Automatic annotation (TrEMBL):
InterPro entries: Ald_Oxase/Xan_DH_a/b, Ald_Oxase/Xan_DH_a/b_sf, Ald_Oxase/xanthine_DH-like, AldOxase/xan_DH_MoCoBD1, AldOxase/xan_DH_MoCoBD2, AldOxase/xan_DH_Mopterin-bd_sf. Coiled coil: none annotated. SUPFAM superfamilies: CO dehydrogenase molybdoprotein N-domain-like, Molybdenum cofactor-binding domain. The lineage of its organism: Bacteria, Bacillati, Actinomycetota, Actinomycetes, Kitasatosporales. Residues 45-151 form the Aldehyde oxidase/xanthine dehydrogenase a/b hammerhead domain. This is Xanthine dehydrogenase family protein molybdopterin-binding subunit.
Length: 775
């Protein structure tokens, strides 16, 4: 691709670092402008109203009783003492659920309250509503539950032979992918066993909600839901109500890197409001969040790579085992991504991959950025490093000999029809200048591994450089019906966008403003609050709102544009295609007509509603074949680390990132998304692991679970953004935040391998794995 496909974002520090030529002045509005998010200032100043700030007249407070055991039979539940406490207004258990007893966004296998059997630590047993939060918590402690402890199944490998933990059995899904000739072999063979730990999405901001009963017998739920229509339907089924009797109002969303809110607390909240006839509020503690919501799947991976003497891949064999925890949730979709991307963005003539997702008595697993793809990336990139070492060639060169491009096949048999500039991305990070070595800088400016007060000695520090290539799919997969609806209304020169797409930090609300500004030339654009009275827009995952909801907004705005321009076109005897809107003015191709949008909008109300639905996909068949994905995004990262080879402490010095983004819609926002994704990946590589002992979560708080801080975040150099538009996507843009999360842990591990000579086959990297190998 030509050099003009590389965009340096203006006013941001990485433009100079990348050696990019200065650009023309950035636009002030519309697509391509660095518009700030509407709620950015309020969140920065601490005035943003989060869901935990909600209030209502006559408010009651809720609390949940959760199981202290990972696996137990419930012999009895006695709520009499709790019900007799002054101030307690209601206590509900499994026997009080009027509708469906189980729920699930993908598979309805999770009980609202444990009924007869506890399957994971922290599973809800009962809920209480009281006139004070302390009273509610004391009442949960007064509920007497008699348990018969059972042996927990915590090793996913043992789940195959264990007694069924669930009526649906222990196997959630099995995918045996077969592609090519099983008898093919290579001259060089490398094998590896890899493990990826349990990463928590750790949403900053309490999971909270308010339920308000309605006069018609229904209920309204005010929560930070990321998929309000699905949550409404789940809740309505459990309440025994019609969907139109339940309304979810999305409020106070602080951000999300997965499923933001656990429906497991929204449903008890609504049940209490319906039982008491009063508004009920619940704010989950951090411990409850760690115990209740979904985490990244812990994964066991076995790999065997075959290559010829020059390092070109011949065959990949893999076994992938995902620990789904107690319930299925999104494990089927995560497994499909893991199996499909098990070979990475490389050309592999023959691939044989078996994947399983199994139930255990561990905490529930579900959707977290890059699910499935992140785990396999750590494994296949470790294999590529092994292969390079065995053959004796540079790891970057080995990758360049094998990278895929547009027109190649995935192991699922699907042709890569979208832009896939993988070689260009890898070359960009390989050729980017390395950071200075500590000996070239003043010693006081050198941050030792372990932080400013690190106990190590400078002489024990070794520097390593590692590479990784990652890929993710965009939108849903395997036949998911992706559709979104949006309405654009203009009145008195002010535009309003109505769309139930939840902005979890992806910037959709800002994008919607930019689309309308560019299409209609209207300066003032508002995005209406989200609730389920609006048509559905789907979940806020896989970058789908940029594509699907953004596409719906664009189509609606273009329909309004036609309404605006038709009278003028008719008056001057020309088609609307000969008129253009730019900088708030309407002009004709020949310059005869020139007026302002404000003049033509004066006194008019124009509106239109439109849908966007990408082309359909299909489920993987019995051999793992099928066109399961709408689009793909790719990323290359070069990590530079300093490792204290005596203590095993690691400091990530720099992450050089090159990514194909399709089209840059908001430069500043794009850079933020990439930087955030890289930082989340660094956490997965070095610190984040929700540890369990016999199924019990250890230290479920932000002291025991180590998120990367500003001191842990490396210098992130965005050295190249390839703008090669995907023709099937609105605006040609690609999802931005998931693929750096997928790629960065593998790059950090590769750099630690280079520094220490050790295999590094587990994430997060343990200190003992970063101690240099004995010569």
């Amino acid at each position: 691709m030509s050099s003009d496909a590389t965009t340096a974002i203006p006013t941001l520090p990485f433009a100079e670092a990348a050696g990019a030529a200065p650009e023309a002045e950035a636009p002030l509005r519309g697509l391509g402008a660095s518009l700030p998010q509407a709620d950015a200032r309020a969140k920065a100043e601490g005035t943003f109203p989060y869901a935990s700030d909600l209030w209502a007249e006559g408010l009651l407070w809720a609390a949940l009783l959760r199981s202290p055991h990972a696996h137990a039979r419930i012999v009895s539940v006695d709520t009499s003492a709790a019900e007799a406490m002054p101030g307690v207004r209601a206590v509900v258990t499994a026997a009080d659920v009027p509708g469906a007893a189980t729920y699930g966004r993908r598979v309805a296998d999770r009980p609202v309250f444990a009924d007869g059997l506890v399957r994971h630590h922290g599973e809800a047993i009962a809920a209480v509503a009281a006139d004070h939060p302390d009273t509610a918590r004391l009442a949960t402690a007064a509920i007497l539950v008699e348990y018969e402890l059972l042996e927990p199944v915590t090793d996913p490998e043992k789940a195959f032979e264990a007694e069924p933990l669930h009526p649906d059995g222990n196997l959630v899904r099995h995918i045996p992918l077969s592609f090519g000739d099983p008898d093919a072999t290579g001259e060089v063979v490398v094998e590896g066993l890899y493990r990826v730990g349990r990463q928590d999405p750790a949403p900053i901001g309490a999971e909270a909600g308010l339920a308000v009963p309605r006069p018609d017998g229904g209920v309204e739920l005010y929560t930070a839901s990321t998929d309000p229509h699905t949550d409404r339907d789940l809740a309505a089924a459990c309440f025994g109500l019609a969907p139109d009797q339940v309304k979810i109002v999305v409020t106070g969303v602080p951000g999300a890197t997965g499923d933001r809110e656990d429906p497991g607390f929204q449903i008890p909240l609504g049940l209490l409001a319906l039982r008491t006839g009063c508004p009920v509020k619940l704010t989950a503690t951090r411990e409850e969040s760690f115990l209740g919501h979904a985490h990244r799947h812990p994964t066991l991976l076995r790999y065997r790579h075959h290559a010829d003497a020059e390092g070109r891949l011949v065959k990949v064999e893999a076994q992938i085992l995902l620990d789904a925890g107690a319930y299925a949730d999104s494990s089927s979709e995560s497994l499909a991504a893991a199996v499909a991307f098990a070979c990475g963005p490389y050309v592999v003539p023959h691939a044989f991959v078996e994947g399983w997702a199994v139930r255990t008595n561990n905490p529930p697993s579900g959707h977290v950025r890059g699910e499935g793809a992140m785990q396999v990336c750590a494994a296949y990139e470790a294999q590529m490093d092994k292969l390079a070492g065995r053959i004796g060639i540079d790891p970057a060169e080995l990758r360049l000999r094998n990278v895929m491009s547009t027109g190649d096949l995935l192991p699922t048999g699907q042709t890569v029809t979208c832009p896939a500039p993988v070689a260009e991305l890898l070359a960009a990070v390989r050729d980017f200048p390395l950071p200075a070595l500590p000996k070239d800088t003043p010693e006081e400016d050198w941050l030792l591994p372990g932080g400013p007060e690190g106990a190590g000695e400078p002489g024990a520090v070794r520097r390593g450089v590692g590479y990784a290539l990652g890929m993710v799919h965009m939108l849903g997969a395997e036949g998911t019906d992706e559709v979104s609806t949006a309405t654009v209304r203009v009145l008195d020169g002010v535009a309003t966008v109505i769309c139930s797409a939840v902005d979890t930090g992806s910037g959709f609300s800002t994008l919607a403003r930019q689309i309308v500004q560019e299409t209609l030339g209207v300066e003032e654009v508002h995005v209406a609050p989200v609730d389920t009275d609006q048509p559905p827009a789907g979940a806020a995952t896989h970058g789908r709102h940029t594509w699907v909801s953004g596409g719906a907004v664009e189509r609606a705005a273009k329909m309004v544009r036609t309404q605006l321009l038709q009278p003028l076109a008719h008056k001057f005897g020309m088609s609307t295609e000969l008129l253009q809107i730019s900088d708030g003015r309407i002009t004709s191709y020949d310059g005869v007509l020139s007026t302002t949008v404000a003049e033509e909008m004066n006194g008019k109300e124009l509106w239109a509603t439109a849908q966007c639905r990408p082309h359909p996909t299909e489920p993987l068949d019995a051999s793992g074949q099928g066109d399961a994905f709408v689009g793909l995004a790719f990323c290359a990262i070069r990590a530079v680390v300093d490792v204290d080879i005596e203590l095993g402490s690691v400091r990530v010095v720099e992450m050089a990132v090159a990514q194909d983004v399709g089209r840059i819609l908001n430069p500043a926002q794009l850079a933020t998304r990439i930087e955030a994704g890289v930082t989340q990946g660094v956490g997965a590589a070095l610190t984040e692991n929700l540890r369990t002992a016999r199924g019990l979560v250890r230290h479920p708080d932000l002291t025991g679970y180590a998120l990367p801080t500003s001191l842990d975040a490396p210098d992130i150099r965005i050295v190249k953004l390839v703008e090669e538009r995907d023709v099937v996507a609105p605006f040609g843009a690609k999802a931005a935040s998931a693929v750096p999360v997928v790629t960065s842990p593998a790059a950090v591990a590769a750099a630690v391998r280079a520094a220490t000579g050790r295999p590094v086959n587990r994430l997060p990297i343990r200190p003992q794995a970063a101690v240099a190998a004995t010569p």
